[in-house]
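// run 5 | inverse folding | seed 20
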């Protein structure tokens, strides 16, 4: 792009839309990862509780 060249409102709108979609996908991925980490930690906690119960016997 040469200096002073205006890409126009359509190009700006497309760029803004792509950035918005990219941000939304990133946020969705972070939420998905957080849910997976929470589920894994809950499974680990349950395993620890079962192990403690076995050790007490």
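// decoded
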């Amino acid at each position: 792009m040469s200096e002073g060249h205006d890409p126009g409102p359509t190009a700006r709108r497309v760029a803004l839309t792509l950035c918005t979609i990219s941000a939304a996908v990133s946020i969705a991925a972070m939420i998905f990862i957080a849910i997976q980490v929470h589920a894994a930690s809950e499974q680990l906690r349950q395993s620890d509780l079962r192990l403690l119960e076995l050790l007490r016997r």
